[in-house]
User: Fold these one by one.
Assistant:
Number 1:
Amino acid sequence: MNKLMDPGTDPQEKTRQRRLAPEEREHQIVQSAIAVFSRLGFDASTRDLAAAMGVTQPLLYRYFPTKEALVDRVYDEVFVRRWNPEWEEWLADRSIPLAERLKRYFKDYARFVLRSEWVRIFIFAGLSKAGINRKYLSRLRERHFLVIARELRSEYQIPEPTADSTEEDEVELIWAMHSSVFYMGVRKWIYDLPTPKDLDRAIDMRVDAFIAGVPPVLRAYRG
Amino acid sequence: MNKLMDPGTDPQEKTRQRRLAPEEREHQIVQSAIAVFSRLGFDASTRDLAAAMGVTQPLLYRYFPTKEALVDRVYDEVFVRRWNPEWEEWLADRSIPLAERLKRYFKDYARFVLRSEWVRIFIFAGLSKAGINRKYLSRLRERHFLVIARELRSEYQIPEPTADSTEEDEVELIWAMHSSVFYMGVRKWIYDLPTPKDLDRAIDMRVDAFIAGVPPVLRAYRG
DNA sequence: CAAGTAATTTGTCAATTGATAAATTAGCTA
DNA sequence: TAGCTAATTTATCAATTGACAAATTACTTG
């Protein structure tokens, strides 16, 4: 969209800055790659990438030794650098009822998930290289799911898990809740279906159903 | 795995039937393609496909005019022909408590979803051609989700939906339940995470939490 | 303003891809 | 067993791909 103007057409010749500082260009490549990969998948050609930013294809190799290195960088950019440390704090803040904390957390999380790059790149990554998501998912489990499980026990007087299997029960039901939010992004960005009219309402209802349904079930399945 | 034995090595020359009846070969191609596409995605090369079945690549073009025709056929084979009409009957059978019906339905559905072809091909399809899943998903909505919503109202005395938005509330919460089952397949076949030790238990808990949580929420959000 | 540095482009390569045409041969039938 | 039909293979093409080397040129510095 930029840097491709016909020099003769542009009277403000100064705006046609074709040569960028390396850090700037690298940043531009990564951002552009996020957009292109999210649309076309990691099979997008390096020529597609270059064209999307108005640059020639071999230039990419000045900044990334291989295409795979760029793919890895994109993944890192989207899933590691965009992790919000506040999420864990919100979930653990006992001055607020757990239902409220969960609503705040999932609404914010949904805002990420409902961006096309997030869902599509996460899924593309999982499909093309098995296990690449594992680090992200184990962080999700340790820092979010296990905190939610603990807070749930604390607020609803659920006994501590004795065996691994009872801890798995808790995590499974939290996975179910989490899935239902993430899957809204899948419905929109992978299935091309409409999003609920009122996103906040959809999440409020999910959390309320979770709070009403999960604690009694956890108690009933104890043993 | 077959039809590639060295003739000199095989004493039972008869077993080396290389030439198949067209219907047989076509069936073999489709089945083989399901396996390969599910592993490598629709970007798998026609040579990969041919190699997987011990046949040369141009032969595929005797049976399918283009690669895309084969892709479409695979999608049809997996998602249209494997639809089980009994699902709708189970859900509507009022001689059984709704919770039981849902458990039976989702357990059977989970058996499909936890096959790698189902999840991976469905997602690959969604990613590569937007909208291709829509027909399947609208059938899911009409024949399963709306039935569940109706049965839920009937069994738990929930008033009929007045506006579209209240019907959307119901469908959203059923989507949430459905997501949590489908996503078990995503976790296994896309993220490469372990499946719950006891799948039936995991589904029982989800359904029980759904039954305990959803009706009160639907009543509370009325208006 | 001249010269050097390095960002960017031009040119090119080998490998892989979907697809077609022509040659081959397995297996049926007379 | 000879001959025919069609299933299958061999050979090949043009387009696309990731990657590299060398030429070019924008910008900085003295």
Number 2:
Amino acid sequence: MPLREDILEVSRTILVKDGFGKMSMRKIAKHAGVSATSIYLHFQNKDELLLALIESSIAKLALALEKNLSDSDDSITKLEKIAQAFVEFALNNPQEYEIIYMVRPEEMPKFPKEKFQQVRKIYELLADIIREGSSKGPLSVDKPLMSAYTLWAQLHGVASVIISKRLDTRIPTGEFVSQAVEHIIQGFISQKTPA
Amino acid sequence: MPLREDILEVSRTILVKDGFGKMSMRKIAKHAGVSATSIYLHFQNKDELLLALIESSIAKLALALEKNLSDSDDSITKLEKIAQAFVEFALNNPQEYEIIYMVRPEEMPKFPKEKFQQVRKIYELLADIIREGSSKGPLSVDKPLMSAYTLWAQLHGVASVIISKRLDTRIPTGEFVSQAVEHIIQGFISQKTPA
DNA sequence: GTATTAACTTAACACCGTTAACCTTCTTTT
DNA sequence: AAAAGAAGGTTAACGGTGTTAAGTTAATAC
């Protein structure tokens, strides 16, 4: 009785094991013990299936970030921990991270914007910390939401560079991550020099 | 008489116009007035063709960056200009930028590492500026090459977030880019607060 | 003038996402 | 109990993909 959830689970397994490129409808069907066309009874098309996978991966990422939040920490420590957790999640779950942030837009032309709402929760989480650190802490920031996006883009850059194997082999990954994360967080603390 | 160069040119046109996902061997062949299999006389497979395209796109990017270099500028201005040029190139040539930095590794399993050497020139260019600014300027950096990678990863993050349409619709792109770039460069100028 | 090589061809293989049409089986309605 | 419908499944097929094998044609080299 392979239903929606079974298909999703099988897909997730294949995605994590073989990556998005190898995740075909026929392969999913075979692993679910069902014909390929059956999937279309539960999902409109592959994009919709992918979307469902993205949603669950986003939830997983959000959870991983929140797990590293402690009320007793000051804003900077919070940012540091979250930044570290973000990159760690990406490196430990490259296939899932990839579909969250790296699937190319022209491959999913009708990607519904409202489904990305879930990701916004992550930005709002970042923005909240930044806002907190900005009011009663040492963070010098005037537009928290925009800064949250900047932070996120920076972290994404670090993660994606490693995942897509674009890091120079001379540079050790671990060292790069910790230096980059430290540098990025530092950028939020520093006083601006007047122009 | 479509030879290697002709195929490359046709491929480049299709890539820029329709994107990587739509760039099929058969389509290239049709536009080159040749059978699909002919391409395999000049390129081992699609990955190799793609690699050649990546190389030429990298050269184009390197040129775009160098064009914005002026000896009369101080290190910070140089970094600012290059950073701006980097993101601008990405946004103005999204398809080419995508294949340079966003093509997933599992789609090109046998990607020869030494071919990425060309990209290194770009890092070295960044590293040189950082090194210069570190010795006789206000940049506080101890590992120039690693810092170059950090800078590049951050810029890539900003570019890729926009190209892959992951930027919140509430945030205006232009403003985001300029604020993010400014913030990133600022991060290289700032004094480190002692741990 | 034979041999080699470069450039090309068609036919085919094994995949892909997706659709159409059809078949069960179980549940609900009359 | 009979009819209707929904839920879950099927096979066959369309048009696409990258790629390989085998064969052709034309020029160039000895």
